[in-house]
Amino acid sequence: MRTMRRLSVMVLGAALVVPVAVTGTASASAEGPTAPTLVGIRAAHHPGYDRIVFDFDGGLPASRQVRYVDRLIGDPSGLRVPIAGRAILQVRFYPANAHDDSGGTAPETVAFPLPNIMTAVRAGDSEAVTIYGIGLAKRQPFRVFTLTHPDRVVIDIDAAFRTVQRRVWFLNVPNYMSGHGPYFTSVLRPVLPMTPATGVMDRLFAGPTTSEMISGLRLLPSQATGWRSLWIRNGIARVRLVGGCNSGGSTVSIANEISPTLKQFARVDHVKIYDPSGHTEVPTGPVDSIPVCLEP
C-alpha cells in the first residue's frame, strides 16, 4: 500500500515615481453593475519590449493610472503585498472589478517567462477599484494605451536588453503524490547576465506559468514570501528568506527548490538557507544548511 506523504503546497506569485494617468468621463456608476470587469491578463515579448494586456468585459475603465512604486500595498488592507522582481509597476483601474457574482474573473497572480515582465499580482479589488502590481526584472520606460473589440488596456515595457536562459526548479505535484521522481522539475527563465543568481531567485518566487501549473508544477514556499541578502563567496551561496518559514512537517520544502536553482552555477558548491531571523543550522563550513523551520 502506498504511503502518503505530508505536503503543504501554496501557489504563489525609492526611485523617481513616473505616473501615467488617463482619465475620461465614466459612463457607469462606480458601484453600479455596469462597471467594466477585468476578465484576463496576458503578456508576450515583442522586439525590444514586453507587452502586458488587461482584457475587460463591459467597456474600459474611465481611469487608468500606471506608475512605478517602491512597494505594492493592498487595498483596502494597507498591508504590503509580496511581489517578485527588481521593480514594481502599479496599475490602478477605476471603475473596474476583477470579479462578478460567481467569483473571480481574473487571476490573483500570474507568472510570465519574459525578459522583463515576471509576474502580475493583484493588490486590490474593492469598491470598483482594481489594482495590480507588475513585477519586473528591470525598471524601464513604458507606454500605456487602449484598444477595443475586445476592450483592453495595453502596457508596453521596454525590454531591449540581453538576457541568458537559466533554470528554476519547482515542485512536481503529480510525481510527488505518485511517489515516482523526480519530485522537482526545472524550467527555463530569462535572467540578466550580470546578476543571474538574483534573477533565478526572483523567478522562483514569481512562480510557475499558467501552462506549467496545468502540468502540475507549483512553488512550494514553506510560508516564505520572498528572499533577500543573497551573496556567494568561496563556493557557498547564502540566502535569507522573508515572510514566514515552516515546512508544515513535510519531507520537502522550499530548500529543495532553492538548492538546485543556485547550484546550477559553477561557483556554487553549497547553499545555506537562513530563516527570516537570520538563523541556519550550520552557518560555517563547506556544507549545505537549512534553518530548523524547514526540517520535517
Structure at a glance:
With about 300 residues, this protein is mainly beta.
What does this structure look like?
- The chain is mainly β and 296 residues long.
- It has helices at residues 173-178, 196-206, 210-214, 255-263; strands at residues 20-23, 37-46, 49-57, 63-69, 87-94, 99-100, 103-104, 109-111, 117-126, 129-136, 142-147, 152-158, 164-172, 184-191, 217-218, 224-233, 236-243, 270-274.
- It folds into 2 domains: 20-158, Immunoglobulin-like (Sandwich), CATH 2.60.40; 164-294, no CATH class.
- The chain has 4 helices and 18 strands.
Rg is 20 Å
Q: Please report the number of helical segments.
A: 4
Overall, the morphology is globular
Structural class: mainly beta
Task: Provide the number of structural domains.
Answer: 2
CATH topology name of the largest domain: Immunoglobulin-like
The appropriate CATH architecture of the largest domain is Sandwich
- How widely separated are the two ends? 22 Å
How many β-strands, per DSSP? 18
Mean pLDDT: 91
Strand order of the largest sheet: 1-4-5-10-9-8
Percent of residues in helices comes to: 10-25%
Secondary-structure element string: EEEEEEEEEEEEEHEHHEEEHE
For the record, the CATH class of the largest domain is Mainly Beta
Main beta-sheet annotation: 6 strands, antiparallel
Sequence stretches where pLDDT stays below 50 over 5 or more residues: 1-32
Quote the beta fraction. 35-45%
SSE layout:
Layout: E1 20-23, E2 37-46, E3 49-57, E4 63-69, E5 87-94, E6 99-100, E7 103-104, E8 109-111, E9 117-126, E10 129-136, E11 142-147, E12 152-158, E13 164-172, H1 173-178, E14 184-191, H2 196-206, H3 210-214, E15 217-218, E16 224-233, E17 236-243, H4 255-263, E18 270-274
Parallel strand pairs: 17-18
Antiparallel strand pairs: 1-4, 2-3, 3-12, 4-5, 5-10, 6-7, 8-9, 9-10, 11-12, 13-14, 13-15, 16-17
Helix pairs in contact: 2-4
